[in-house]
Amino acid sequence: MADTGILIVGVGGQGTLLSSRILGEVALRSGLDVKVSEVHGMAQRGGSVVTHVRFGEKIYSPLVGMGQADFILAFEKLEALRWAGYLKKGGIIISNAQEIPPIPVTMGYQKYPENINGTLADIATTCMVDAGKIASDCGSAKAVNVVLLGVLASRLDFEKELWLKIIEETVPPKTVEINKEAFKRGYEAILEKREM
Q1: 3 state SS of 35
Q2: How far is CA 67 from each of CA 1, 34, 92, 175, rounded to the nearest angstrom?
Q3: Are residues 58 and 190 in contact, defined by beta-carbon separation less than 8 angstroms?
Q4: Which of 187, 9, 168 is nearest to 81 (CA)?
Q5: What is the average pLDDT across 38-60?
Q6: Rounded to two decimals, what is the model's pTM?
Q7: How far apart are CA 57 and CA 59, in angstroms?
Q8: Which residues pair with 92 in a beta bridge?
Q9: Are the beta carbons of 66 and 86 closer than 8 angstroms?
Q10: Theoretical Cys-Cys bridge with 109: which of 13, 58, 104, 131, CB 3.0 to 4.6 Å?
Q11: Mean pLDDT of 39-54
């Protein structure tokens, strides 16, 4: 498999780190070399959280450089826009449609940017998913991260059953079925879009 770089971005509490752990474990158990690096901002106060995940035959650095990401997996629209400069030409942005206003916006010092969908679409192939609704339909709004992992998984060459096995091993036992369903719904969401 060609070296692949993925940036997973969100705000504190959205499960960015859990998602990177699942993705890294899937790549590792598929026989690839994997490097994961986490960067926490003011995560406890709704600040950005970003993880860099790289995998391939031999990976020497954990960091995805500017203009080198194959995918940006964003759990919030503004975070997708904030990190879009890391995407390489031909890369794909997968983003949750949810808007979470950052503190300067909630305090009234700034406005949430308009037309983020249009801006992202001008930058790259973008898949905007209402992951919050899908997660809620599965039984927990907290499963947004796993819905989006499902969307990403449909674009990678790892076996779907391996993803489900690692999700089962990683999430709290009482949430296993919700998360497995969230993953499946995310996986199917992108397939439906491809057929359009």
Answers
A1: strand
A2: 20, 20, 12, 36
A3: no
A4: 9
A5: 80
A6: 0.90
A7: 7
A8: 71, 125
A9: yes
A10: 104
A11: 75
